[in-house]
Design brief:
With 203 residues, this protein is mainly beta. It is built from one helix and nine strands. It has one domain. Strand 4 and strand 5 form a beta hairpin. The longest helix is centred in the N-terminal third of the chain and has 6 residues, at 7-12. It is globular and about 55 Å long. It starts with 6 loop residues before the first helix and ends in an 8-residue tail after the last strand.
Length: 203
Amino acid sequence: MYCKDSPTYILDQPMCLFALSKETDPERLGELRLVLADQETCDDGCRTLKTIHELDLPLQSSRDDRCDSAKARPLDGRLQVCDLTHALADGNFDQRGFHGGTFTWLGQRLLATGTLSGITNAGTHRKPVFDPACQRCDEPTFMEGRFCGVIRRAATDPALIGCQVFGTYRLKFDGSLRERSTPIRGVLEGLIVCECQPAQPPA
């Protein structure tokens, strides 16, 4: 889907923003299931590993009430991706790579769909910018990226239909992407973006 995050859209479109903050329950982790792993080799000998995983991630509201608005509470539920696809450097499950997929977010009588994409096995919270640092530049078992989608069903709050869900995610999985099944946990931080009225940009 098209992510509505261009500078002109943000400037010209009247909108309301509602905080969205979700996390996995420590006692009910998600699951990352390996579906396919395939090596590619280019003419110059470069090797890239391509994988497809299924992701099932239970989500609940943040324990900090300041970060998850009442509008976002119906998004407590499950985020599922059937085509989480990776390309990993050097043909190695533990090397840096990038990923993308399409998600279905099933909440409390609410459905959102969209896309996510980001970087795998790399860390951003590192020195010298972040001190104390909690990561290195190479950070196996870590995924970070952006999600965007649209709410398509909202039985308890029909005004949410058509609103965008937009934000970032940080996911941590056990073991390696080579495992047939591995637990995964994480956080999503973002916004629900609802258009107030059609945009009327300056002539």
